Amino acid sequence: MGRFRLLGGAAAAALLFAPGAVWAQDANAALEARIAQLEAELNSLKSEVAAARTQQTAQAQDIIRLETRPAAPAPTPVSTAPREEGFRIGDHTVKFGGFIKVDASASRYSGGDPANGDLLRDYHLPGSIPVGGADEDTAMDFNARQTRFWLTTDGLVGGHKVGTRLEMDFQSLPGTGDQRITSASTPALRRAFVTIDNWLIGQEWTNFQNTAVLPESADFVGAAEGTVFARQVQVRYTRGPFSVSVENPETTVTPFGGGTRVIADDNSLPDLTARYAISRPWGDLQFAGLLRQLKYENPASNIDDTATGWGLSASTRIKVGAQDDIRLMLTGGEGIGRYVGLNFSNDAVLDASGQLDAIGVLAGFAAYRHVWTPGWRSSLIWSAQKVDNDVLLTGTGANRSAQSIHANLIWSPVTAFDVGAELMFADRKLESGLDGDMTRLILFAKYGF
Hints:
Elements (H helix, E strand, L loop, with lengths): L8 H9 L2 H49 L18 E3 L2 E18 L29 E5 L4 E10 L2 E10 L18 E9 L2 E7 L25 E9 L2 E6 L4 E3 L7 E2 L7 E10 L2 E16 L4 E18 L3 E11 L13 E3 L5 E3 L1 E14 L2 E13 L2 H4 L4 E16 L2 E14 L4 E14 L1
Parallel strand pairs: 10-16
Antiparallel strand pairs: 1-2, 2-3, 2-4, 2-22, 4-5, 5-6, 6-7, 7-8, 8-9, 9-12, 10-11, 12-13, 13-14, 14-15, 15-18, 16-17, 18-19, 19-20, 20-21, 21-22
Helix pairs in contact: 1-2
């Protein structure tokens, strides 16, 4: 358009004053020539504009391709859980899952072999390590008892968030068969609860425990001596980082002078717990407290007494770099034996007059988890417990201390599939000075679904 110019003055005058026919013919010719010239210039401008638009479109597409280009694939996660997909039933989403786990262990005991069917042959049970017996050759055991399955529901009912969980495994109870024919195992209830908004009612991990810091281990528990570990029926209320609960009570008692553990089952008040959780970019930290009644009543022996038990626990998971972490737990108190170390110590001991005296316990663990490459990881774990026995009451046959150290290597070749090996050494000491140790190599394969 900018190139358009009117005819010059002389040409215009000639056209105006030329004789009629000649003037008309020349004017028409000039006008047609000018129109043709303008059309050519317009077509040229259209071509230039179209070319510019084409270039702009190509540039825009390049930008879009750059902005939407898929990011470089992230490294394969160390252990990816199976995708949880559910289906609808009424107002609820229902999900089912679990895992298959197979263990092969080779164990050597310095103080004598545990009997066939003893739970120590399946997993590390500190209070069952044999002491005082003869050393025997290495014992090999295979089992699939840690296999687990669960069912959950989640939904909105009347404006309230409602959920449930049912979870079972085959590890918690001795098998109903033996290894000669079927190696049968009895299904055992792990967790069964309903949640309504902030409330939980049913069987769940004790609120005194922090399951998030449990080290990754091939063993059923791993850091058994040093960890709070219990599942029981409770009523729990959670608001933000704070939770409180009333939980099933139970008192385990050592008779005066020592002897077989007494499971009293006489409590008249529930155990009370409180927990506070802190989450930060560097990791997590939790504090927990426990207050409980210890009670034993035996009319035949004219025993009817109560005592108070209490416990404090602190635990943390500290991030180290992009994927590594350190996990720590420290627990102490009196009358909390059944909560710590799989009941390595009893809660209380009877004195000569039939009164209960709470037993002190200090326990903890430290673990470092390192990711070697995507899919390969290891944990180094140390766990220990020390019991403060009054030997004049408990006798010298009571457990005094236990500890273990674990080192493992785990590989996840595909999603939700782990294979690995763990070498562990554990020992148990009595107040008499007798001790026993266990060296165990565990090979395992686990697939989650």
